Amino acid sequence: DGGITQSPKYLFRKEGQNVTLSCEQNLNHDAMYWYRQDPGQGLRLIYYSQIVNDFQKGDIAEGYSVSREKKESFPLTVTSAQKNPTAFYLCASSTNPGQGAMELFFGEGSRLTVL
Amino acid sequence: AQKITQTQPGMFVQEKEAVTLDCTYDTSDPSYGLFWYKQPSSGEMIFLIYQGSYDQQNATEGRYSLNFQKARKSANLVISASQLGDSAMYFCAMREGGWGGSNYKLTFGKGTLLTVNP
């Protein structure tokens, strides 16, 4: 089935450690996104990528890094510079402009807890 | 300023009744798209319905309809005949630039937690 796979589902990290969250899609979408969700809050955009080998900062990119070496994959690294990394992280993909409403298709999320 | 406002942190509805979830938005762009997503306790975000700013008719998808009042900048979600499985968080979102626009950013509201009672 077509969709987005995020792993791991749960992740615990000690302060000062970098962690990488995986996101893979087989929807053949060019665009991919990372959002962060905190309790009682909506989703906030961290990074997005319009096409392979290109990505743009979202509203809260500080302390995060991404890469887009393959169309199917858009991993997110939460670095030790991120002051408050405990959150629920959602990866999404979409078609590009001109191809419709560009609704986002989401993965099941990764919950990161810093101990 | 908040671009998307959802004023109801929580809503309760009886099974089989209809419920309206409120959403107001703020934009000066004449072209934009409005989305509703459902987030069950499992965490995944599920796309429900889309309304373009130039669409003449209110969008409908099965039991979901969008009450679009452009002058009031309102895009309320109506769920008819509520089911127990409708219990979830519901998020309203907007993409400025609309259909075919070059803006990739989707801005979300803070959500409304809907509880359907048997």
End-to-end span of chain A in angstroms?
A: 36 Å
What is the N-to-C succession of helices and strands of chain A?
A: EEEEEEEEEEE
Amount of beta strand of chain B: over 45%
Give the integer mean of the pLDDT values of chain B.
93
Tell me the overall shape of chain B. Answer: globular
Strand fraction of chain A equals over 45%
Query: What can be said about the biggest beta sheet of chain B?
Result: 6 strands, mixed
Which short descriptors sum up this protein?
heterodimer, A: 115 residues, four-stranded antiparallel sheet, 11 strands, 0% helix, B: 118 residues, mainly beta, globular
Chain-wise SSE layout:
The complex is a heterodimer of chains A (115) and B (118).
Chain A: E1 4-7, E2 10-13, E3 19-25, E4 31-37, E5 43-51, E6 54-57, E7 64-66, E8 76-78, E9 87-94, E10 105-106, E11 110-114
Parallel strand pairs in A: 2-11
Antiparallel strand pairs in A: 1-3, 3-8, 4-5, 4-9, 5-6, 7-8, 9-10, 9-11
Chain B: E1 4-5, E2 10-14, E3 19-21, E4 24-25, E5 32-39, E6 46-52, E7 60-61, E8 64-69, E9 74-79, E10 88-96, E11 107-108, E12 112-117
Parallel strand pairs in B: 2-12
Antiparallel strand pairs in B: 1-4, 3-9, 5-6, 5-10, 7-8, 8-9, 10-11, 10-12
Structure notes:
- The complex is a heterodimer of chains A (115) and B (118).
- Chain A is mainly beta.
- Chain A has no helices and 11 strands.
- Chain A has strands at 4-7, 10-13, 19-25, 31-37, 43-51, 54-57, 64-66, 76-78, 87-94, 105-106, 110-114.
- The termini of chain A are far apart.
- Chain B is mainly beta and 118 residues long.
- Helices cover 0% and strands 49% of the residues of chain B.
- Chain B has strands at residues 4-5, 10-14, 19-21, 24-25, 32-39, 46-52, 60-61, 64-69, 74-79, 88-96, 107-108, 112-117.
- In chain B, the strands form 3 sheets. In chain B, strands 2, 5, 6, 10, 11 and 12 form a 6-stranded mixed beta sheet that branches. A 4-stranded antiparallel beta sheet of chain B has the order 3-9-8-7, with no helix packed on it. A two-stranded antiparallel sheet of chain B has the order 1-4.
- In chain B, β5 and β6 (46-52) form a beta hairpin.
- Chain B starts with a strand and ends with a strand.
